Amino acid sequence: MENMKKVMVQFDFPNMTSKQYDQVWQDLRAAGHENPKGLIHHVSAQTDKGLKVVDVWENADKFNEFGQTLMPILAKNGITPTQPIVSPLHYEYSGNQVH
After folding, report:
1. Closest Cα partner for 3 from 41, 38, 53?
2. Is 51 contained in some domain?
3. Would you say residue 75 lies in a domain?
4. What CATH code is carried by the domain that includes residue 41?
5. Which of 5, 6, 12, 51 could cross-link to 89 by cystine, CB 3.0-4.6 Å?
6. pLDDT by residue (tens digit) across 32-41?
7. Is the pLDDT of residue 71 over 90?
8. Origin, by domain of life (predicted)?
């Protein structure tokens, strides 16, 4: 049975550049994943070690399904996959709405 609890997914990509990140999104769009199914929020930030990505997904199953598309695209762009931290969402605030 599908896990229906929202999850926060955090990736740290050592040495990943913003140019590589932008190319990954171009490749995702080209593969028909401009709006990945189940993705609620996505942010990224350059750090002193590379790039950090934080997502909120409808559930872990949706994230894992998207991983089947994402992983080959990361490899194509020379990005070493890292193990994400997946945590059940405890609280979500978006603008003036509490979820």
Report:
1. 38
2. yes
3. yes
4. 3.30.70.100
5. 6
6. 999 999 999 9
7. yes
8. Bacteria
Tens digit of each residue's pLDDT (9 = 90 or more) over 39-56: 999 999 999 999 999 999
Tokens of 19: 């140019």
DSSP conformation letters of 28-90: HHHTT-SS-TTEEEEEEEE-SSEEEEEEEES-HHHHHHHHHHHHHHHHHTTPPP-PPEEEE--
Q: Percentage of residues in the chain with pLDDT exceeding 70?
A: 94
Residue 93's SS3 state is: strand
SS3 24: helix
Give me 21's structure tokens: 């990140």
The total of structural domains in the chain comes to: 1
Q: Decide if 98 is inside a domain.
A: no
